[in-house]
Amino acid sequence: MTIETQRSIPFVYKLIMGMLLCAGMFMTSLLLGAADISAKDVWLALTSTTAAGGPISIIREIRLPREIGAFFVGAALAVAGAVMQGMTRNPLADPGLLGLTAGANAALALTIALLPSANYILITIACFIGAAIGTVLVFGIGSLKKGGFSPFRIVLAGAAISAFLYAIAQGIGIYFKISKDVSMWTAGGLVGTSWSQLQVIVPFILVGLLLSALLSRQLTILSLSEEVAVGLGQRTARVKAILFLVVILLAGASVALVGNMVFIGLVVPHIVRAFVGTDYRYIIPMSAVVGAIFMLFADTVGRTIHSPYETSVTAIVAIIGLPFFLFIVQKGGKGFS
Q1: Which terminal CB of the chain, N or C, has fewer other CB atoms within 10 Å?
Q2: What's the structural domain count of the chain?
């Protein structure tokens, strides 16, 4: 999409169009699945306050919390990827590729092993701490070489640290004989998402999304050049610290709900830039919408492609995301912009 085409349609219209597509994908995800659900059942489940069994109970207790989880996780991972790409000026940045989700997975496994009776809030906090540790390790190792870190050096460091942390998670599972529990949690998926889990996770994601939107102008300046940001009076150290906190909140909360999930944070911001340009005041909200659509679509495909059996949503996302990743690498990180 050319710059002229981008400017011809006001951003608010693009955002409204994206939100309508997201609403349509959300309704489609409630309709499709192993159980036979009609549009009338969905309408009654969403609008009626009376207790009911059958399809309406399936929607209220299984599909609705699951798809709400998909919506927020997709938005969180996409925005986290956009923030990381802008902050580091690294077109290959993604929470799943740079050690965040691997760190959260390792912390989650350790929590399950040492505190088997831990509640969901404690597990979520452990995921935040693990994501922070993973980030520090990747950027610390990536910047050891003289001259700072390059995008590709960070990706290599992320791959190495991710493999190391995943090995730790598996080792914990084997040693404490909880491999099945760890694998079920970290495999990546929305099976069993409950309202009680959403009550814990969604507020963290909302805080992360709000902070990223509030700092979108500073992120735009930071994405151009750190020298420019300093010259304009921006306190780059403080802005970076808050943005890292945002990424940790979004990635940690996502792992606590769905386990390991890669490529969403890499692919979605590149697609969004093709439609809204390079201003993060537009990239952040549009990434949230497109990320939600992406995750809802992947989860719906996973539930329906081999119904009544379920295909891992992680596999669906990887099948879609890997070609995009290779395309972005081949383009030298320019993607669709």
Answers
A1: N
A2: 1
